[in-house]
Every structure is written in C-alpha cells, then in structure tokens.
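FORM 7B: Structural annotation worksheet

SECTION A. Query
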Amino acid sequence: MFIDKVYRKKIKVKREEVFGFALSMGPVLGFALFGLIPMILAIFMSFMDIYGFTFEGAGFVGFENYGTVLKDPLFWKSIVNTLYMGVATFINIALALMVAFLLTKNVRGKKVFRTIYFIPYVCSVVAITVMWQWIFNTNYGIINAIFTPEGQEPVNWWGRADTFIPCLLIMGVWSGTGYGIILYGAALTNVNSSLYEAAKVDGANSFKSFWHITIPAISPTTFYLLITGIIGALQEFARPQIISGSGGPDNVGVTVVFYLYRSAFQYYEMGIASATAWLLAILIVGLTVINFAMSKLWVSYD
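SECTION B. Predicted structure
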C-alpha cells in the first residue's frame, strides 16, 4: 500500500514536470524561430552579396557590406538623426519626475491625472503619429490656425529640415512621459519617510532633501528609464516613416532603422541591411555597457 502510494506520487511529479517543461518550451521555441534563427541568418547575410529575398546568386564578400555602410554619408547622418530624436528620452525623464513628484502631494484627482498622462503611452503609435501629423499640417493644422497671423504664410512644419525633428520631439515627449510618471510615482511612494524627518531635524530645506534623499532613492528607476529609453530611441522608425516615407526634407527623418528598412525593402540589398542591423546592435550594446559602467557612480540600491 505504501509502495503503491509512493509510486503514484512519483508518477504525478513526473507528469507535472513534463507539463511544466512543455509550457516553458513555448517562449523558447518562439525566441528560436523569431529571434535566434533570424539573428544567425543575419550574421551570415551581412558577409554576403544578396539581392532580393532568396539566396539565389548570393556570394561571400567578407566585410565589404560593412565597409559600404560605414562609407555612406547617409548612414552617419541617420545616426545623428537618431541621437537627435533620442533627446526626447531625457526630456521625458525630467518631465516625468517633476509631474510624479507634484502628484505625490495632496492633489485632488491624482488617479485621474495619472490615467490621463498614461493614455497616450498605450495608444497606437500609428494613430498618435497621424494625429500629430494633422496637428502640424501646413494648411489645416490647429497649430498654424492658432499661431499664424492673418495674411502670413503658414509654416510647413513637416516640410522644413529645421522643424521636422523638433515636431517629432514634441510628439515623443507628449506620448512617452506618462510611462515615467507611473514608475516614478511608485518609486516616490516607497522612499523611506524617516529620512525626510531626519533631514528636517538636521535643518535641511525641501530642495536639499529632494536632491540628497529623493534623487538617490529613485535612481534605480531613473537608470531603468534611461536604459530602456535609449534602446527604444536607437530603434526609432515608425513615426518618421509614417510622417514621410521618403525620409523627410534633406533626409532629416532617416533613422538607423529607417536606413536599414530602405536598404532591405526598397533597394532589396539584404546584405547591406544585415550589416546595418549588426552595426546598430553593436551601437546599442556599446551604449548599454557604458551606461551600466557609469551607473556605479550615481545609482544607489540602498
């Protein structure tokens, strides 16, 4: 009787292990099919001369594709454009911290404000981009309707090189700040209140308490937002591509991913596109490693 009970228990445990293993294989297979295998193929393709979406007629060219990309002035301009658009990340962090800090005070309807700020973040990127495209429209946009004096030529916001990216920055700040507000709101509520009381006893004013207590206490959240924001900014593609499929005036809307997309799906140079993808990956890894190394100087986990 006892042996039979132990045997049934072992069978049950094995079934649970098999079932758990089967469930865990779903994400692994998904990553292998849609992540690992394409990544390996991209490595090989970056060293080959491939035109189109098949390997027919492909040949090994070594580092020629990388040289072609690195010698292309448009590629370097795309990096500058991408970094310029990435300024929105730092604005988002600063603005999110300010708003979240204000919402920790005795403000009526704090949950309503948090919801309102967060809604743009969860909305479709396409829908938000189209909305802002019309807001800055030359002839029918509300911005020109409000700020253009009568008789004066309306500003072509999307048609000028000096206003194209600033408009994208405004769009990015408007849609991306809400996420930081939610995270900072949670981080600020977890700051040990006894630290503020001790600082007050020592004669510290509100600014000193905020600078020496609040900022270090929420530094892990700031670091997280900085890392994810930079990685997301380096992968910017949808908004400038929706606004102008041609890359905007003087190619100011061409980001690194946009450059990769045009190489692959407009010029069908898959080797060039693969090389661009790996150069972007190296750039992202490099900046991430630098950020992690620098974080030891200012991020506090105490």
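SECTION C. Observations
The mean pLDDT is 89. The longest helix spans residues 2-45.

SECTION D. Sign-off
Analyst initials: ____
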